[in-house]
Amino acid sequence: MNNRLDADLLHALGDLDEALAILDGDFLVALNAPMQALLPGEPGGLAADWAAPLHGLASALAAPLGVRTRCGVSGEYTARRVALDARHVLLRLVDERERLHHLQRQLDDREGLLFTSRSLTVSEMGSVLAHELNQPIGATVNLLRGLKLRLARRHPDSTDELAALDKAVQQVTYASQIIGRVREYTQSRQPKTERLDLVALVHESLALLDWDLQREAVRLALSLPEAPVPVQGDAVMLQQVLINLLRNALDALRLDRPDDPLIDIELRLDGARAELRVGDNGPGITPQTEARLFLPFSSTKPNGMGLGLSICRSLVEMHQGRLWFSRREAGGCCFHFALPVMAAETTPTLEKTA
Ligand code: ADP
Fold it and tell me: In 3D, which of 236, 235, 231, 269 has the Cα closest to residue 348?
């Protein structure tokens, strides 16, 4: 670049939303509309009128890059300079309020998701526990009753033992009532029946995990339809499924990192169903793990609860969908979930799945 700045570059400045200006020493060569809005006074002939306010600014910017400055307007701006050539400097004023506001919104979203995810997890955990404990408790009551009958027949005088067995039956029956109440509570929680776009849901879930994806330096390969894919259901629950699958993929890639860690997400329409596929090129799953994959409390992670996939499966089934696993051809594994696509004229209704 020489004294005459490239015309395309000057033109491009005009299209950008960020406040930008090009300086030649203390003199203004070009500025775009957002920068004009920040500077005091009426914009007259460019360099002459703006040289004064920019003079102070440019001197302030003689300090290291990223100096925070107040430039005659209310609000905090961070000024950044990029040398374009020996003479020209591109000046960017970054609105800190906007950036902080955006950051705060992201944090709020994350906090909201964490909160909902925690309460969903507690509720689903209650449901899984109730389901798992119901059977052994029922069997214990039956065994104790049978034992008592046999004891009463063979040793009718063992009154202490018979009384102890009665107490044991009472205690176990009490436990089973508590579990019944937990089941009632968790089964009364039905998914919402909103009209949702699965494509948007993928983008929102990825936005919530962007820090994790960046930290793990994972490459994302997305294959999503251009048009929205409408399904009926509960956005928070379905987001929970997607985030669980993505977190599992991230965990797998972290524990056994390949050369080029990759998560690929594909959403495709298959007749009246939409199928979302989350794959990773991590270590994959052994046949032993696969056999217990969707069973509660089965985990190969040091601190894993082993509830994620069983909860995901029940959330997808609440939406009349299906969740399954396959091996990825190029190595690693892949989780799929399929949901019925909502026809354009359909009014939202979900059958009860209690
Ligand atoms: P947790 O994450 O607490 O272990 P999950 O039910 O989500 O519980 O997962 C159960 C197990 O399935 C994990 O411990 C892991 O062994 C296996 N698994 C799940 N997703 C993946 C994946 N993408 N790659 C490899 N293994 C996985």
Answer: 231
Q: Which domain holds residue 319?
A: 194-353
115 CA to middle of ligand 1, Å?
22
**Confidence band, pLDDT 50/70/90 cuts, at residue 144:** very high
**Average pLDDT of 233-255?**
92
Q: Which atom, in ligand 1's list, is nearest to the CA of 289? A: 16
Same domain, 199 and 347: yes
List pLDDT tens digits, range 305-318. 888 898 899 889 98
Over residues 85-95, the mean pLDDT reads 80
pLDDT band at 76 (very low <50, low <70, confident <90, very high): low
Pocket of ligand 1 (CB under 6 A): 244, 248-249, 252, 280, 282, 285, 289, 293, 299-301, 304-309, 333
**Given the CA of residue 296, which atom of ligand 1 is nearest to it?**
6
pTM: 0.62
Looking at the fold, whether 164 and 213 belong to one and the same domain comes out as no
Same domain, 92 and 113: no
Write down the H helix ranges in 155-219. Answer: 159-187, 198-208, 210-215
Strand duo 219-223 + 230-233: pairing: unpaired
- Separation of CA 255 and ligand 1 centre (Å): 11
Q: For residues 211 and 335, state if they share a domain.
A: yes
Which ligand 1 atom is nearest residue 305's CA?
3
Report how far residue 76's alpha carbon sits from residue 95's, in angstroms, rounded to the nearest whole number: 7
Closest ligand 1 atom, residue 306 Cα: 8
HSE-up of 18 (CA within 13 Å, CB side)?
16
Predicted local distance difference test score (pLDDT) of residue 91: 81
